[in-house]
Amino acid sequence: MTPRQAAACCGPLDDLLDPALFKALGDPTRIRLLGCMIKCGRTCSVSEIAECCVVDFSVVSRHLRLLERAGILGSTKSGRNVSYTVKYSHLSMALRSLAGAIEQCRPSEARAGKGDCCGR
Amino acid sequence: MTPRQAAACCGPLDDLLDPALFKALGDPTRIRLLGCMIKCGRTCSVSEIAECCVVDFSVVSRHLRLLERAGILGSTKSGRNVSYTVKYSHLSMALRSLAGAIEQCRPSEARAGKGDCCGR
DNA sequence: CATATAATTGCATAATGGCACAAATATACA
DNA sequence: TGTATATTTGTGCCATTATGCAATTATATG
Q1: Which of B5, B13, B33, B40 to mutate to test the interface with A (most CBs of A within 10 A)?
Q2: Candidate from B36, B103, B118 with C-beta closest to A39
Q3: pLDDT at A63
Q4: Confidence class for position A115, pLDDT limits 50, 70, 90
Q5: Which nucleotide's C1' is closest to A27 (Cα)?
């Protein structure tokens, strides 16, 4: 079984390996902001979050919107304040599911040659 | 506790939230290649892997090197062939550890107000 | 209504990154 | 030694994106 042939074998991995999610997490500034929010553990306003970085306020605003569109953050508006919240369960579940799907594909001595394409 | 203050609270999350890893996973072509290799389940040569995509051979070569530098792939050279292998355990562990660290920071009703900064 | 504050949006700029093509390197084989 | 095959590297082009600054919108408050 060549990797080309394995590509035709669809499974849960295909949906979980989402480049858009990782692209959102792949920027140092965004990761910094996200890390602060995760550790903070509560809903935060854009102004508060902007304190975590030396970049311009508008940049932070854009990063947060991007993280929201990626499904990593949720947002609520109250008056003139916009607050963002980490979607803990969604994020950790996405990572854990992917880890599981990868593990499923890992060949073991016991299964060597017994199955192709993620054990199927 | 503001997100700015939470930033000073160092924990396992800081090392696990590595933008370099996510940047490596954040490109559609690279994810495509990686997905093929994961499902294939064996060591593959650059030529084989290049069959998975329509991009130029040189592009694939560079992508594989990048994934290797990110710790996602391992490589061995045998004669004129270079083979890449998915580091299943390393990759799934990195994802699972991150998921765990994120969960640790998630506030629950029981812990509400009891601890700051990832429960500490 | 005027003003202050919170956040977004428009815009220009610079940096980054993916890509194709060509050339170079390395190794196997006749 | 000459040639074929596998892979890497150099280079330029183009699209995307991160950023700062200024202007704008939206809402609260005096």
Answers
A1: B40
A2: B118
A3: 98
A4: confident
A5: D18
pLDDT of B49 reads: 98
A52 backbone dihedrals φ, ψ, rounded to 5°: -80, -15
Q: What domains lie within chain B, and their CATH numbers?
A: 16-105 (1.10.10.10)
Interface test with B, best of A9, A29, A37, A39 (most B CBs within 10 A): A39
What residue in A sits closest to B53 (Cα-Cα)? A4
Asked if pLDDT for residue B119 goes beyond 90, the answer is no
Look at residue B9 and give its three-state secondary structure.
coil
CB-CB neighbors (< 8 A) of A48 in chain B = 2-4
Distance B17 CA to D22 C1' (A): 34
Q: Which of residues 21-80 of B touch strand D (CB under 7 A)?
A: 45-47, 57-58, 61-62, 64-65, 75, 80
From first CA to last CA, the distance across chain B in angstroms is: 12
* CB under 8 A, 24+ apart: contacts of B73-78: B73/B34, B73/B37, B76/B43
Q: How many helices (H) does chain B have, and how many strands (E)?
A: 7, 3
Mean pLDDT of A94-102: 98
Binned at pLDDT 50, 70 and 90, residue B77 comes out as very high
